[in-house]
Amino acid sequence: MLLDDRALHASSVVANCAMNRERQLAGVNSYARVLGFDPVDGLTGAWLDLCCGSGRALIQAADRLAGAATLVGVDLVDAFAGGAPPGVTFVAAPIETWAPDRVFDLITCVHGLHYVGDKLGVITRVVRWLAPGGRFVADLDLDAVRLEDGRPAGRRLVTRLRAAGIDYDGRRRRITCEGPKELIFRYEYLGADDRAGANYTGQPAVHSYYRA
Ligand SMILES: C[S@@+](CC[C@H](N)C(=O)[O-])C[C@H]1O[C@@H](n2cnc3c(N)ncnc32)[C@H](O)[C@@H]1O
After folding, report:
1. Distance of CA 22 from the midpoint of ligand 1 (Å)
2. Which of 34, 61, 201, 206 is paired with 67 by a 20 to 30 Å CA distance?
3. Among 30, 33, 51, which is best to mutate for testing ligand 1, by the most ligand atoms less than 8 A from CB?
4. Which atom of ligand 1 is nearest to the CA of 54?
5. Cα of 75 to ligand 1 centre, how many Å?
């Protein structure tokens, strides 16, 4: 049986306390390592980190930026590392429904979409929040996007993403998008499966089902 968002958010796979919520800004277990770039380099406007976990990367970024940028972290679970320092706002909310009141120069979602039900719906919402020239970068395992009959959406989805201006790096399993976009995916979200097992990160993840 496929789960709706309410059931998914209560699932032990999503609330899993063993998942890595502690990535730092730089170093071995870090955003810079996962993303392949240092998010603070050249950042002057605003950075939104979706599924931010403990928010350590944002806290460290605030320290380095000394007020030069606005930093917002959103996570379903309020496991933020202490109080937010000046310049940082933490929001405990599901990214399927939360919406910002401004645009961002950088939006990241580091190993967060693996636990989201409507991954394509979230991507569609998020890319509207980019400032002109802004960048959205997220880990996305396309194997977790399934069609009604259980098959992965596969290459056709990659083609549709690319046609919509979203780059997919298959080796790193990462999507990148520049500037605000109005996406129209011809996929109807059906629900999520939290019993899909471990994905390439080694942690149990969520498969998202769509009618093409
Ligand atoms: C593997 S952790 C990554 C945390 C952080 N990005 C890092 O790299 O340290 C995934 C995070 O996604 C959050 N998450 C899962 N589903 C979510 C949802 N629907 N809305 C917001 N956050 C969600 C989890 O609570 C968890 O903190």
Report:
1. 10
2. 34
3. 51
4. 9
5. 6
List, for residues 183-195, the tens digit of each pLDDT value: 988 899 999 999 9
User: What is the set of domains in the chain, with CATH numbers?
Assistant: 5-211 (3.40.50.150)
- pLDDT tens readout for residues 137-174: 999 999 999 999 999 998 999 999 999 999 999 999 99
Q: What is the 3-state secondary structure (H, E, C) of the chain?
A: CCECHHHHHCCCCCCCCCCCCCCECCCCCEHHHHHCCCCCCCCCCEEEEECCCCCHHHHHHHHHHCCCCEEEEEECCCCCCCCCCCCEEEEECCCCCCCCCCCEEEEEECCCHHHCCCHHHHHHHHHHHEEEEEEEEEECCHHHEEECCCCECHHHHHHHHHHCCEEEECCCCEEEEECCCCCCCCCEEEEEECCCCECCCCCECCEEEEEC
Q: What is the distance in A from the centroid of ligand 1 to the CA of 111?
A: 7
What separation in Å is there between the alpha carbon of 100 and the centre of ligand 1? 17
